[in-house]
Design brief:
A hairpin with a 6-residue loop joins strand 1 and strand 2. Strands 1-2-4-3 form a 4-stranded antiparallel beta sheet. The chain contains 10 helices and 4 strands. It is an alpha+beta fold.
Length: about 260
């Protein structure tokens, strides 16, 4: 080949300008995303999960007029979903928290109509966060025990003080040197009602409370007679034969009591 022919060779294509260089790997090929060492609040104040999320994002249709950083939007979306779920879990229940997060973010989600994303979360807990969570739990358990004991003591006093006979016996036992104050105590607690049995269902508890209060309010034989006559008439109308017979026996016993007012 002559020197002249080498000089007349056609020049090759110019190099690609810098502004049209290949896009970053994430945007062009893989569309993978990674979120590492995120400290996400748990259900307990001041206690955090350490979260690592691996995921992918995919465009749906034409994205030429869409978001300039779809990867960032996908990461933000996975962060928000994970944080919202983990706020309802304790770091002491790591498997349950992990399953709850992955049950949501592992399925396809669309933060925008043109974008689909999904991911997998890996959760860990630092020793400091675990120790703090255990301290939270101990305090919560201690508080629950103290509240239960307070409730028990209040219910006990309510039951004692609402019953005139038990009230007198309890006061004599507790404060034998203050018997002169017993009348004041009786006046102070005269409107106190006995506690309701929390082990019964709603209607059953209401009926029991009503009957107990009714018996407390029927102070005189005449009041009891009026009530029993009205009750037997009501039960006769309702067709409750067994209850009517019981009420009738109570009424006949009342009629035979010395000094009973049957007027």
């Amino acid at each position: 080949m002559s020197l002249f022919s080498r000089r007349t060779r056609q020049p090759g294509p110019p190099p690609a300008p810098a502004e049209v260089a290949a896009a970053p790997f994430e945007e062009k090929a893989g569309r993978h995303l990674l979120i590492e060492d995120e400290h996400v609040p748990s259900r307990m104040t001041g206690v955090h999960f350490t979260v690592r999320i691996e995921g992918t994002w995919h465009p749906l249709g034409d994205t030429s007029a869409g978001h300039h950083a779809p990867g960032a939007l996908a990461r933000h979306h996975l962060r928000e979903h994970s944080a919202r779920i983990l706020r309802h879990h304790s770091v002491l229940e790591l498997p349950a928290a992990r399953d709850a997060v992955n049950a949501t973010i592992a399925r396809p989600m669309s933060p925008e109509p043109w974008l689909e994303t999904r991911g997998t979360a890996h959760l860990t807990v630092t020793d400091a966060d675990r120790n703090l969570a255990e301290e939270h739990l101990r305090r919560a358990q201690q508080g629950a025990l103290e509240r239960e004991e307070t409730h028990r003591r209040i219910a006990f006093l309510q039951a004692i003080l609402s019953d005139p006979d038990q009230r007198v016996a309890w006061w004599i036992d507790q404060y034998p040197e203050r018997l002169s104050e017993l009348a004041q105590l009786s006046t102070a607690v005269k409107d106190l009602r006995p506690p309701r049995d929390s082990t019964r269902d709603g209607l059953d508890a209401e009926v029991v409370w009503f009957v107990e209060q009714l018996l407390t309010d029927l102070h005189t034989p005449h009041q009891r007679e009026v009530f029993l006559r009205a009750l037997t008439q009501t039960l006769r109308t309702l067709g409750s034969t067994d209850l009517q017979n019981v009420a009738g026996r109570w009424l006949s016993t009342l009629d035979t009591q010395p000094g009973a007012d049957t007027a």
